[in-house]
Amino acid sequence: MESGTRMDNKTTVDLLWQRAQELDAADPLATYRDHFLGTETPLVYLDGNSLGRPLRRTAADISSFIQDKWGGRLIRGWDEEWLQLPQDLGDQLGRAVLGAGPGQTIIADSTTVVLYKLIRAAVAAVTDPARTEIVLDTENFPTDRYLVEGIAGEEGMTVRWIDADPSTGVTVDQVRAVTGPATAVVVLSHIAYRSAFIADMAGITAAVHDAGALVVWDLSHSVGSVEVALDAADADFAAGCTYKYLNGGPGSPAFAYVNTRHLSGLQQPVWGWIGRKDPFEMGPGYEAAAGIRGFLSGTPPIFGMLAMRGTLDLLEEAGMAAVREKSRRLTAFAVELHDAWLAPAGVELSTPRDPDLRGSHITVDHPAFRDMTAALWETDVIPDFRAPHGIRIGLSPLSTSFAELYRGVDAIRERLVAVRCP
């Protein structure tokens, strides 16, 4: 460690290291870290908000699937388990993580495809011809923005933009200000991918409904890191990925949530054989399967669903309240380290200071971070860079320790010392 620098001194370094150890010793979820591959190594992983670590059991689960189910049962596996798996996992996800009752959540496709289906279905469900606007914010994730622009072009609609602050996010007042008789659908992220600001899901949903419109929530940075209550918020639709805090692996399929009240008569736009009421009839014409199953299209990506099962089991065991509490503590310690070490070097915190308003990552900004990130990766310290000059410090509650977080921010501190003192 550095000592006697302009940024810090040995006493502060020692005190913060002691604090990290105390936080780990008091962490009721500390042993869950042992379930994940790589946590026994010195590598510092602060990018679980982009791609989560694999569970140790995943290798055995996949091997067993290949040997016993795929290899042993072969085509019989579809009838015995696989056709039902997207809905079974969806129900577990809803129960353990999303605050959603059974029959409303299903695993299917990529996040982009799922969002496309939901937004198009929501637009189609709005029958008032005066409702020609889709609302979203300027700081939403690129996929969400591109999809809305494309769908608006397909449907002859207008995009109404909320000019969001990159360091915070969309508020209820902003939603009320732009929604009205012309609004058809509102598309928002529950947690802002840059700042980690948590939107008021219940309040915004109520505001959208007051305007007579529907809302589609992107939960990609929420699912598995913070408590979500889709049913209680009366949300209409939601989607999210499973390769971040659910540890499903690169490209693991996304999920779709459709509130029960919308399922009857709702039609999604991508008609495929597996979403038909009787897929093996192979008959003419398309009639969607009843319920959430009608949001399937092509053959379910069974192999891509295997890894997330273990994390869903852990989340159900630990409980999302405990997971969220650790998330708060991790991000609070990250802010503490920023204030002690990074702020004096001119680093800006671009995340809300109120722990109730931020998800499970913080974003810090400095002009040196673009080049620094690659150098950190070379030394097995792995945060996430977001242009123009932000480092996201992602903190997966089940797999990240306070000591690991300490070592990661310490590495950033040391490189900032080198930048300032060549």
Automatic annotation (TrEMBL):
Coiled-coil zones: none
Enzyme class: hydrolase
GO biological process: anthranilate metabolic process; L-kynurenine catabolic process; L-tryptophan catabolic process to kynurenine; NAD+ biosynthetic process
The reaction(s) this protein catalyses: L-kynurenine + H2O = anthranilate + L-alanine + H(+); 3-hydroxy-L-kynurenine + H2O = 3-hydroxyanthranilate + L-alanine + H(+)
Pathway: Amino-acid degradation; L-kynurenine degradation; L-alanine and anthranilate from L-kynurenine: step 1/1; Cofactor biosynthesis; NAD(+) biosynthesis; quinolinate from L-kynurenine: step 2/3
Lineage: Bacteria, Bacillati, Actinomycetota, Actinomycetes, Micrococcales
Entry EC no(s): 3.7.1.3
GO molecular function, one term: kynureninase activity
Top-level taxon: Bacteria
Functional description taken from the UniProt entry: Catalyzes the cleavage of L-kynurenine (L-Kyn) and L-3-hydroxykynurenine (L-3OHKyn) into anthranilic acid (AA) and 3-hydroxyanthranilic acid (3-OHAA), respectively.
Assembly and binders: Homodimer.
Listed InterPro entries: Kynureninase, PyrdxlP-dep_Trfase, PyrdxlP-dep_Trfase_major, PyrdxlP-dep_Trfase_small
Necessary cofactors: pyridoxal 5'-phosphate
Protein name from the UniProt record: Kynureninase
Gene designation: kynU
Family that this chain belongs to: Belongs to the kynureninase family.
Assigned keywords, A-Z: Hydrolase, Pyridine nucleotide biosynthesis, Pyridoxal phosphate
Record-level GO cellular component terms: cytoplasm
